[in-house]
């Protein structure tokens, strides 16, 4: 069996209030999947009260750091367990994010825009699906331009907000300028396998947007966005096959907030794929 070389870089804990399983259980599945490591990226606290039902409180941040640290120690000789965070971005959030990201030794910082949040849709949905798509892709680009994030997660999540009105061809008027701006920053983007379980059952992003990312040489991190331990490393084989079909030769991950690139074929060979 080849040496493990790849990470699952998007995992949650029960502190986000919509995930199951303790960190050690996620580690067990990561080890069984042939991963070199896992990175916990639970949803960030936001003191303003933004979408409080789906994230930890600021008072729980130290506890989050502690449970990841304890899991890392317990698995030190088998699996590399790292601390990360998934931070929501909306315009005006920059000062808090800058402060938050210095509060712990985060190895990886994901930037997310969640258009399904009530607070987001009330402010940015407008009177049509086109308006929320325009805002969403604008905010993805703005998130990358803050310099706060290593990678932008599930970057076409908006398609599941009003799925019956999603037209990827029409949305390209917003997607292409967004990707031009992200490419200029050097920030990576995620291929999130959990999209296969959404209303529109395809990875985030779908193949059309992924092809546009490839044209701009935007690095890609494959991740599961696991909210249950059983999904760690889920559908990585399909994701890496999709990357190859799109023209990618390498896939990325981050440790100590530095991007690491590995050959896709080597990553596939190293994993315990179904």
Task: Give structural notes.
The chain is of the alpha/beta class and 274 residues long. It has a single domain (7-270), classed as Metal-dependent hydrolases (TIM Barrel, Alpha-Beta Barrel), CATH 3.20.20. The chain is 36% helix and 18% strand. The strands form two sheets. Strands 1-2-3-4-5-6-7 form a seven-stranded parallel β-sheet. Strands 8-9 form a two-stranded antiparallel ribbon. Helix 5 runs parallel beside helix 6, helix 6 runs parallel beside helix 7 (207-215) and helix 8 packs antiparallel against helix 9. It is globular and about 55 Å long. The two termini are 15 Å apart. 46% of the residues are buried.
Task: Throw out a few tags for this protein.
274 residues, alpha/beta, TIM Barrel, 7-stranded parallel β-sheet, 9 strands, globular
Overall structural domain count: 1
Strand content range: 15-25%
- CATH architecture assignment: Alpha-Beta Barrel
- Identify low-pLDDT runs: none
Query: N-to-C SSE series?
Result: EHEHEHEHHEHEHEHEEH
**Roughly how many Å apart are the termini?**
15 Å
Rg result: 17 Å
**Which fold name is given in CATH as the topology?**
TIM Barrel
CATH superfamily: Metal-dependent hydrolases
Q: What structural class do you assign from the helix and strand content?
A: alpha/beta
Taking the sheet with the most strands, its summary is: 7 strands, parallel
Q: How many helical elements? A: 9
Quaternary structure of the protein: single chain
**Name of the CATH first level:** Alpha Beta
Indicate the percent of residues in helices.
Answer: 25-40%
The pLDDT mean sits at 97
Total E-strand runs = 9
How are the strands of the largest sheet arranged?
Answer: 1-2-3-4-5-6-7
Instruction: Describe the global form.
Output: globular
